[in-house]
Please model this.
Amino acid sequence: MKAMHSSFKIMLLIINLYLSACILSGCSGESSAKKTSPDKTLKGHFSVSGAFALYPLTVKWAEEFQKSHPGVRIDISAGGAGKGMMDVLSNMVDLAMFSRSVTEVEEKKGAWKVAVAKDAVLPTMNSKNPLISELLKTGISKETFRQICIDQSVKSWNKCVQAEGQLYNINVYTRSDACGAAEMWGLFLGSNQESLNGIGVFGDPGIAEAVKNDPLGTGYNNVIYAYDITSRKQFDGLSVIPIDLNGNHKIDEDEAFYETLDDIMKAIGDGKYPSPPARELYFISNGKPTNEAVLAFLEWILTDGQQFVNEAGYVRLPDETIRQQLTTIQ
Model:
């Protein structure tokens, strides 16, 4: 065991030296991935639960990691960021997928974090909304979203676009589970998850499906549940509501970045899409991990694993941030 621990520390040092050299020489993106041959000596098992936001990418990372580390078994389940935090602090799992900032209270309880990627929460509507043409032109401002989701003073789609004629009520859906998506959407609107009103639905897939089945529905989803990873287009039946960031009742050219998955990813990476509801995604453990398989997995994610971030529909962290995160797991 001591020999294995020593070898792991040597490997960690090499990885950090490599990444630092790459950053200094101007490397970026997938070019910083370190190519390694399969490591059949590392063996172990660990479990992961938590945020739906990070679940698809974690599954992809686990599949690729196990190709190069066939002796490691990883069990993954989604259930919301709140469940992940509860599971990891009670030692039911080794890692939690987490999609909001870690609170001081959670840190005092032992929550240790490492940032691994970035994404955002997007407001959504049904693609057959009767006023969709107008909504895509005018967007909805943060203040109006607050009046829809929190104050409940705006109850019709007509009022959002100042349309006369037949009245179309807004059916609001929100998350029933404690989750990062709801918390970040609440923070964007100046409050928190508890203040969000609407019909409670469990999970990201659940709220997306509810809006798809309701022409007058609206909700919010993490990026990966609003866009098809293969076509890079918005899912059939679902449409992202553009946010009128400057409140001028129209979507200007620099606010129009929702057409494709790559467009919204670039807007998040460039900071054009606001934060919140854009945010970093984390893995959480109860104290700094000691499981060598877990540490190797986290090291791999921040090096070789970064090549899968963009193609999976997420935004890569800046190289400097990645380097800083690597130092936290030494």
